[in-house]
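Hi! If you just cloned this repository, the fastest way to understand the data is to look at a raw example. We've pasted two of them here, unedited. The first protein comes first, obviously.
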Amino acid sequence: MNAIEHIESHAYETGYLDVDNHAMGDSPEVMTAIYQEQINLVVMQRSLPTDITGYCQALVECQPHFNLRSVIHHQSPTESLISLLPDLPGQAAFVEDLALLLDMYSCLFELDEVGLRLQVLDRAMCPRFHVDKLGCRLVSTYRGPSTEWLRNGDLDRTKLGAGNRGLSDDASGLYSHAASIQQLNAGDIVLLKGEGWYGNEGLGAVHRSPAVAPHEKRVVVTMDFA
């Protein structure tokens, strides 16, 4: 079953919650909500099986600085991933899951190729709340704390970037209360609509990387239009 069939087979199985600027659900069909004009962030909620989490743990232990960048063709993701990823226990399950994400992303946006990045991280790569300048990025954290984000109604966009006047996110007035900060769970898949999406100028999804505790490591995958 390819990603489109997977999405269609779940179309009436589970509804999704559409509130403010985001949509959330636990089946792949929620991802199509990204095409709604008012939506700039979509979350597919899920839990990861132990063979996948076990592979990520082995990856962290064996290659603590792993950083993969590649362009993957949608017709042969499994073969490409097997050749690029370390041969560790649970590799087959991890490759199958990652190939499914690549298939869903490429089908959703009708892409022949997907820009893939898979990293082991020990620090926040983008610690400040920001918007992306691209079209739409997929992010999923396989291990460790996951992406933080803000609802449109909970933020003052004039405080982004230079508008913070050198103040931290919590002191700049970007958001009123710490409780406004939303955070995804490990395993969740998020689509982040950026400023480069046609008609979305000034409305990109506001998000940041989470803080990482000492000696903690994250395993994060991102996908972009190639």
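Ok, and the second one:
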Amino acid sequence: MSEERRKKQQQQSGTAGASLRLRKFATWSGVVVLLAAAYAAGWYRHNHRYDGFAKCLASKQAKMYGLYWCPHCAEQKEMFGKSFEYVPYVECAIKGSHDEAPECKAAGAKLFPSWQFGSDPPKEGVLRLEQLSEKTGCGLP
């Protein structure tokens, strides 16, 4: 084989190898992007699972009264995850004081957490999401 022909074949095989490496890189990059997107979608769905339920509670005028330092209130909030941001919540503790917020006194909330449904008196204690669903007619996901 002539020297010129050998150099041409080496050049072509180098170009083909680079093209193959580029295709492999693009394929693996696509796989990584798809996996990251699937993970992000699953994370969002898991953490925002009760968004619609919490918004429905708000539309039915359900309201939670709680204290920032109350472990039972924290337990109730954790049931909703990130969706708790949509739950109408009234903080009854006034930082730096032993007094209770006026709105909580007016509602008659004495033990926490307390849930108020419309004009009914507050229902005290941690309520399961199923109980909240029954009380308001809001469906769980």
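That's it. A detail worth noticing about the second one: The beta strands are 62-66, 89-91, 114-117, 123-124.
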